């Protein structure tokens, strides 16, 4: 039920900061099944997965694992690494987009460092034709991330997009403020632990907010990425798009690598654009914990593998 899932989700997200949990999961996680959600611990491995997905007809993106960098030199190095990843993907003939976490590139050092590094990556993407989306992280970073998006667009950089989280009360206002840019917006439910004074605690409310945001974005100028594995929402959006004559090139579905793969294929076969979001690198721990928190069954999947070891 909703209440049980909420307790479970909050429990896992709380446990994420526990050092013993972290050490244990980092040691055994890959063997126990993290590989299902991780396209590769190296870029080389990820490239094989990305090529397979593109060959099947999917759009793709990739993210280097990492977040909450607090020193400038590290953040600068992450931007350099993203530029190398963009060039490598091009050299491999892949059309893969980039999705990056602003705090990985230094938003957590300062707004200026974050902007400078993200702008460097987006400018490089503009040069070679690669789209760069900023993911949306936990609530302290929302203002900074949206501010950087506005600054990039004001600077004439259009190969970039943002994310709005349906669980945040503020997102409907944020959406209205972004619409003048004809933005490329990904809509998600929201993956972090947020207090009830800023985010809907109930799943039913989050789902309703998701549909409101998606419908508003789809009927405005721009491009909408419907990022969810929720079949009910996806079918609702398909019906809405048909009823409102929203062309298929104005939106796409996005799902995470390794999740609801049958649904990914089914939508592709129905002629929709489907982007599979991948991550690579060794810092997969917080990402894995967010995926576990989303679904109690994922923990069972891990437990079963632990018994087999
Ligand atoms: P839910 O109601 O949670 O799930 C619907 C159904 O999907 C479930 O019943 C189950 O069948 C399946 N499912 C969902 N999650 C899992 C799972 N982990 N394992 C197996 N099955 C599952 N969040 C952010 O806060 N910021 C971001 O920038 C961001 N980017 C995202 C990008 C993409 C492409 C996607 C798909 C998600 C992103 N998210 C992001 C995560 C998002 O906020 C949700 O936490 C996540 O998508 C799970 O919610 P759901 O929409 O799938 O709906």
From TrEMBL:
Q: Does the keyword GTP-binding apply?
A: no
Q: Which reaction does it catalyse?
A: L-proline + a quinone = (S)-1-pyrroline-5-carboxylate + a quinol + H(+)
Record EC number:
1.5.5.2
- Pathway stated in the Swiss-Prot or TrEMBL entry: Amino-acid degradation; L-proline degradation into L-glutamate; L-glutamate from L-proline: step 1/2
Q: Which residues form the Proline dehydrogenase domain?
A: 47-301
* Annotated residues for binding of substrate: 101, 290-291
A Pfam family cross-referenced in the UniProt record is Pro_dh
Q: What is this protein called?
A: proline dehydrogenase
Look up and give the organism this protein is from.
Answer: Sphaerobacter thermophilus (strain ATCC 49802 / DSM 20745 / KCCM 41009 / NCIMB 13125 / S 6022)
């Amino acid at each position: 039920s909703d209440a049980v899932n909420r307790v479970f989700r909050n429990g896992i997200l709380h446990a994420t900061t526990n050092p013993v949990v972290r050490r244990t999961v980092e040691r055994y996680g890959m063997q126990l099944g993290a590989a299902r959600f991780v396209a590769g611990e190296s870029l080389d491995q990820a490239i094989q997965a990305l090529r397979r997905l593109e060959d099947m007809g999917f759009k793709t993106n990739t993210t280097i694992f990492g977040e909450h960098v607090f020193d400038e030199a590290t953040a600068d190095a992450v931007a350099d690494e993203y530029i190398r990843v963009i060039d490598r993907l091009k050299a491999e003939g892949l059309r893969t987009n980039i999705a990056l976490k602003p705090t990985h590139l230094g938003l957590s050092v300062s707004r200026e460092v974050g902007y400078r590094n993200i702008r460097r990556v987006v400018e490089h993407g503009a040069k070679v034709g690669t789209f760069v989306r900023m993911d949306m992280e936990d609530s302290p970073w929302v203002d900074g991330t949206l501010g950087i998006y506005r600054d990039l667009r004001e600077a004439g950089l259009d190969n970039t997009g943002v994310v709005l989280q349906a669980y945040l009360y503020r997102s409907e206002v944020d959406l209205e403020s972004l619409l003048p840019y004809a933005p490329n917006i990904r809509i998600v439910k929201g993956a972090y632990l947020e207090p009830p004074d800023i985010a809907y605690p109930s799943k039913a409310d989050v789902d309703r907010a998701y549909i409101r945001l998606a419908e508003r974005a789809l009927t405005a100028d721009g491009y909408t990425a419907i990022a969810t594995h929720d079949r009910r929402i996806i079918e609702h959006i398909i019906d809405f798009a048909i009823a409102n004559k929203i062309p298929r090139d104005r939106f796409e579905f996005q799902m995470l690598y390794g999740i609801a793969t049958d649904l990914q294929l089914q939508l592709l076969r129905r002629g929709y654009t489907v982007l599979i979001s991948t991550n690579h690198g060794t810092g997969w721990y917080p990402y894995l914990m967010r995926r576990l928190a989303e679904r109690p069954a994922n923990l069972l999947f891990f437990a079963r593998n632990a018994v087999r070891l």
